[in-house]
């Protein structure tokens, strides 16, 4: 039975015009520099690194100040875009007769995207596209800074001949000798990822991935290493490359190589290195992958471009980033997707942890670390009451702050009202608030005009996405003085002496000034592993050439693997109860449209 | 009024309540079946059998009440039982205002059946059938009071009055007839529709409100305490008139749709759409649709976001405290409470109890919801692990036998047991009807059950729904439902040819958002508007919809 949601006509209009001009207007070189700066400062957030920071801040204010917007814009649009698409997948999952919301708009998404796709080599537009917005996209900002990365060795890993202790040389990393350090890192991570370890134990005998040849492209960190070793324990052969040129932990890569994994990655790859690594992963005599695990869609893209034949053997793609998912939907729409793909980004568990729970903690953490502010009695305005906004509000309310909310969506607005928050327009309260937090996903939510009217000492920060929400560029005018008081904290001083405290230059506070808990990464990794298992073991015909959401049952399994962490005891249905509810005792327990 | 009179009234009221709850079983049941898929074929089959059998008593009975006691309770009712049980929506806000359902003019002084009376309203029309047209003024006052609480509907009336989006619409409706519905009906009239109305429940009609509606010219066929036969007669009178053919149907429970479908299938040629608000009715529509027999578009308003959130999360968050206070005067601070189930209802209960300082733990079967409970700071336990030390046990699972006799035996003295979920299946009350236990009714809806050793367990509403039995449904919630219905009618009536086919649809998100926005002024809430630039950046229309359909809120 097909139940349809009526998606009003406007669908078509929705996403047509996306800023593309701005992108092309930017010269290729600057953005690269800018991006380096950005990544550095983000990566080094925990370890103070004045050089990177100041470089960005002080560097020629006029041209630089305008670039971040331009560079970041496509990323933002990429984030927005996939949304409507996902219904394609959802509609399928729901096909079995539940009330499903029918696919809405297909056309819409990639009016400009295509060009970008082909623009490749410069890597600018694209790179900015391919960082997943999902915080847990396996990039652990906390531990990404390799402590052995002293760069004492300037030889490119590509030129080195290295062998692991077993004589295997099928890898390319910075320095195989760091393997011991990496092993220690991995062991620490294992402690923090009990769910993945539990999965490893439960399925080790069964070896559900026996015969699977997984080629992966993700951030290479200790947490990913735990995932890879789990896959391997479940029977899979893995070859891995990094999905980000900066995020690789060299010693972890070394430990993996030592353990027999073919890893091609090091910190600080060049654009050319990046593609070379991916190519080495895929292009090998006598070995053809049959599963792809991707983060950002680069690997899929490469195979699609260079080795289309390979798809004949591939049973499925698991993609975890918003961008990658977006690209898959695009392929699917164009009828060019020739294998089933699994969108793990939108599984319930992952979404809740990425947004609601993660932000609920990081808003307090980020503000404390940067400003040591006391929350009790402070007047705070939170712009946007989506998952992130809900998390921020709950945390701040719990600390005794007086919280106001601004919202554009009446449903979310009503939720805010019912949760006891005053719903206001920003201008109505801007004069009296002590803290302004943006989490809308929109641009220019806090404008210069609003900034002008803030009271002295007001803290302004962004929890939403990218750096577009606060119009920081408008603050780069001669009459205002910028004073960097500590890493990630700027005082912007008006001629009359009023100061505004701007955090992370309007970039994401939760990425720049706070950490992503391993628990969240564990959820992501477990979801990925289960998606691989599901795709690999699915009977012929269950998945067609389309993009799917993780089946609810798997989603529930991810959650259940994490329950022991809380010492939570799940109740089981009795046979009689299961029958009464018309449910299987082992789930799925909810219809697909259930909102949680 | 004499003492016995009062009691009689009370009895009726209680009867009707019991009634409702037994109905809920089927409701929830069917709700489940709708959502679960083919692996529940059995239920679907049985229910569809229930649907096709015209009065459908027998087959329905079979499904719902595995539990023996229910059956007895059930058969206590005169006629009408089986069928009625299907048709009350589980949604609390299904327009039956428990708070005001007792007509205060309903002194039953007049025993003549309304069907045999000839009544004329002040404008000379006699195209209606109500208890007593003379009560119109009382009814008018009721309606005016309700209007105060339903400002959203009134503002919709004001905004769209000039436009008359329902001009030409001939709406035939079958809902509870209460002051709140009357506000809805009058809004529809103000927007240009002609309405004929009947009741979807034999007990819930407020006679004086029906009279007030008849007085202003709405053809109403309903009174409190109809018989089964009256019920169908009223529906028939609504539909079957010379020179008037309905082109819209507003239904609550699916009875009207069913009747039209059985008796006047040709009416569907002119019908532009059905708006259905109850779980049951929606379920029946899906079945029709699945069987390929649905010949007009239908709108499922039960599952709109706004309505769902208010029916469950917000409503229960308040009624759990209200219900417990009214019945037991318990103090919540520091009490140990176990809440069974962490769905929307459970989330509401937990947050309310936590806010009052209770120590709350949760039982759950669904790992995702369990994880949510963990992250919200509630200990997830199995009931058996904590049952000995709990001061209160609250069930909201939608399941049966969640609290069994064995657990009741192990509870500590003074433990309060109540049900917020559905029906009366969650607590195994039947198992407490054994000779060694003494039942003591200490006040209305509160029973002390005394064990041989003197231990007492306090059972509320005999295991039926606490929020229906011991608490009220706020008008605000009813307002949300009514506004949703009105907008669904407008949407279906004005949709361009081809937008809706012969299928069941959810309310478009834009309409859902509009319902919410109409209620914002109640909170003095100021919605921010997107600038053109921002709208473009987000790829959104400035006026919504603001979220993709799969958004979870």
Automatic annotation (TrEMBL), chain A:
<keyword id="KW-0378">Hydrolase</keyword>
<feature type="compositionally biased region" description="Polar residues">
    <location>
        <begin position="38"/>
        <end position="52"/>
    </location>
</feature>
<dbReference type="InterPro" id="IPR042172">
    <property type="entry name" value="Adenosylhomocyst_ase-like_sf"/>
</dbReference>
<dbReference type="InterPro" id="IPR000043">
    <property type="entry name" value="Adenosylhomocysteinase-like"/>
</dbReference>
<dbReference type="Pfam" id="PF05221">
    <property type="entry name" value="AdoHcyase"/>
</dbReference>
<feature type="compositionally biased region" description="Basic residues">
    <location>
        <begin position="120"/>
        <end position="129"/>
    </location>
</feature>
<dbReference type="GO" id="GO:0033353">
    <property type="term" value="P:S-adenosylmethionine cycle"/>
</dbReference>
<feature type="domain" description="S-adenosyl-L-homocysteine hydrolase NAD binding">
    <location>
        <begin position="355"/>
        <end position="516"/>
    </location>
</feature>
<dbReference type="GO" id="GO:0005829">
    <property type="term" value="C:cytosol"/>
</dbReference>
<protein>
    <recommendedName>
        <fullName>Adenosylhomocysteinase</fullName>
        <ecNumber>3.13.2.1</ecNumber>
    </recommendedName>
</protein>
<keyword id="KW-0554">One-carbon metabolism</keyword>
<dbReference type="GO" id="GO:0006730">
    <property type="term" value="P:one-carbon metabolic process"/>
</dbReference>
<dbReference type="InterPro" id="IPR015878">
    <property type="entry name" value="Ado_hCys_hydrolase_NAD-bd"/>
</dbReference>
<keyword id="KW-0520">NAD</keyword>
<feature type="compositionally biased region" description="Low complexity">
    <location>
        <begin position="130"/>
        <end position="149"/>
    </location>
</feature>
<feature type="region of interest" description="Disordered">
    <location>
        <begin position="17"/>
        <end position="169"/>
    </location>
</feature>
<dbReference type="GO" id="GO:0004013">
    <property type="term" value="F:adenosylhomocysteinase activity"/>
</dbReference>
<dbReference type="InterPro" id="IPR020082">
    <property type="entry name" value="S-Ado-L-homoCys_hydrolase_CS"/>
</dbReference>
<dbReference type="Pfam" id="PF00670">
    <property type="entry name" value="AdoHcyase_NAD"/>
</dbReference>
<comment type="similarity">
    <text>Belongs to the adenosylhomocysteinase family.</text>
</comment>
<dbReference type="InterPro" id="IPR036291">
    <property type="entry name" value="NAD(P)-bd_dom_sf"/>
</dbReference>
<comment type="pathway">
    <text>Amino-acid biosynthesis; L-homocysteine biosynthesis; L-homocysteine from S-adenosyl-L-homocysteine: step 1/1.</text>
</comment>
From TrEMBL, chain B:
<feature type="region of interest" description="Disordered">
    <location>
        <begin position="71"/>
        <end position="125"/>
    </location>
</feature>
<dbReference type="InterPro" id="IPR036291">
    <property type="entry name" value="NAD(P)-bd_dom_sf"/>
</dbReference>
<dbReference type="InterPro" id="IPR000043">
    <property type="entry name" value="Adenosylhomocysteinase-like"/>
</dbReference>
<feature type="compositionally biased region" description="Low complexity">
    <location>
        <begin position="87"/>
        <end position="106"/>
    </location>
</feature>
<dbReference type="InterPro" id="IPR020082">
    <property type="entry name" value="S-Ado-L-homoCys_hydrolase_CS"/>
</dbReference>
<dbReference type="InterPro" id="IPR015878">
    <property type="entry name" value="Ado_hCys_hydrolase_NAD-bd"/>
</dbReference>
<comment type="similarity">
    <text>Belongs to the adenosylhomocysteinase family.</text>
</comment>
<keyword id="KW-0520">NAD</keyword>
<keyword id="KW-0554">One-carbon metabolism</keyword>
<dbReference type="GO" id="GO:0004013">
    <property type="term" value="F:adenosylhomocysteinase activity"/>
</dbReference>
<dbReference type="Pfam" id="PF00670">
    <property type="entry name" value="AdoHcyase_NAD"/>
</dbReference>
<dbReference type="GO" id="GO:0033353">
    <property type="term" value="P:S-adenosylmethionine cycle"/>
</dbReference>
<dbReference type="Pfam" id="PF05221">
    <property type="entry name" value="AdoHcyase"/>
</dbReference>
<dbReference type="GO" id="GO:0005829">
    <property type="term" value="C:cytosol"/>
</dbReference>
<dbReference type="GO" id="GO:0006730">
    <property type="term" value="P:one-carbon metabolic process"/>
</dbReference>
<feature type="domain" description="S-adenosyl-L-homocysteine hydrolase NAD binding">
    <location>
        <begin position="312"/>
        <end position="473"/>
    </location>
</feature>
<keyword id="KW-0378">Hydrolase</keyword>
<comment type="pathway">
    <text>Amino-acid biosynthesis; L-homocysteine biosynthesis; L-homocysteine from S-adenosyl-L-homocysteine: step 1/1.</text>
</comment>
<dbReference type="InterPro" id="IPR042172">
    <property type="entry name" value="Adenosylhomocyst_ase-like_sf"/>
</dbReference>
<protein>
    <recommendedName>
        <fullName>Adenosylhomocysteinase</fullName>
        <ecNumber>3.13.2.1</ecNumber>
    </recommendedName>
</protein>
